[in-house]
Amino acid sequence: MTGAIWNLLLGIAWVVLSGDFSGLNLVVGLVFGYITLVLIEPQVEALKGYPARIPRILRFLGFFIKELVQANLRVGFDILTPPWHMKPGVIAMPLEARTELEIAMVANLISLTPGTLSLDVSDDRKVLYIHAMFLDDEEELRRNLKEMESRALELFR
Description:
It contains 5 helices and 3 strands. The protein has 157 residues and is mainly α.
């Protein structure tokens, strides 16, 4: 978290010093700030691991956007075609997430994807109950959701 704060501060400093208060200039400042933090990371203990986190976040965003588009297309196709193809159902997915923040993030990411909705977490916080519109293959759905969970947990661990 320290690296992200320093990156933001360097980006804001870039905007203030350049005098251009546009969003594009802030992005340029964030990129220059990131490059600076990558260069000084070996000397600053608090920045350990920060340079690897940004590519992980970008890979996750790409993955999530791909999943989001695919789910939207599938739901849209089902809505626009006369015979409905959905087979709704509820599944229980064992969680690798342990902290409240991790569980909340995984549950929200699943709920953000059209066709799935997080319903509840077991009392021992080891199982997430999910409603799915398309429960054709339960194991495939569980595998896809586990991949989303593992990619999301990469961001925190």
